[in-house]
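Researcher: Here's a chain I'd like modeled. Treat it as a single chain, no partners, no ligands.
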Amino acid sequence: MKKLENKTVFITGGLSGIGMACAIAAANEGANIAIADISNSKNKYAMNDILKINAKAIFLECDVSIFTHVEVAMQKTIDAFGSIDVALNNAGIAGVANKIANMSEHDWLKVIGVNLSGVFNCMHHELKQMAKQKSGSIINMSSILGKVGFNSSAHYVAAKHGVIGLTQTAAIEYATEGIRINAICPGFIDTPLLNDGGINHAHEEQLQYIINLHPIKRLGHAEEIAKGFIFLASEDASFVNGTALEIDGAYLAQ
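Model: Modeled as a single isolated chain. Structure tokens:
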């Protein structure tokens, strides 16, 4: 029996990086997949990779920072599949690196809008539906930077700390309603988001610095995060609630 057989999994930011790896893993476990993401030229190809595994997959154009966008995407998911059993609130951006005094209000609000308010927007609608169902599992994508600081990333760090706070509070509020809410805190993962933050293979010295921050001496892979996601989404984690699972190559153990 597959771990998510006939379950409906709603994933934001599911067409690249960690979100894509989680979508493929969920499809392999038998889930119906609803991908909410911004539209770009690569979407068609990414969706095709998911559809090859499970034809019960839909794409929903959605900016998670806009409350009504999320509401519409959620309703379309319910219309298509009848429920939302698992939600992965994964959409995120790196933002422009800058020290706090040099950071513009626009850059601050943009990251907070997607990475923190976007998670609230999703949880607001997911929890309403799951409360009706009396069941569900929500996984919020935080970060190791949701537990520690990082130079020139105040907006990202603040948002990811906030995601853990939202996760813990929601877990307490909905524990008696059959809903589990957890977070994942990845280390630095070799994905397009890392490149968006200005760290990529073209900047070898900078990349090596980031690698060396991890005692395991390598970046993580999106598929390694997806394994943690499947665990938290499934009944294997039936007593796991309100936690922030670190998958970080011992970064936070230092």
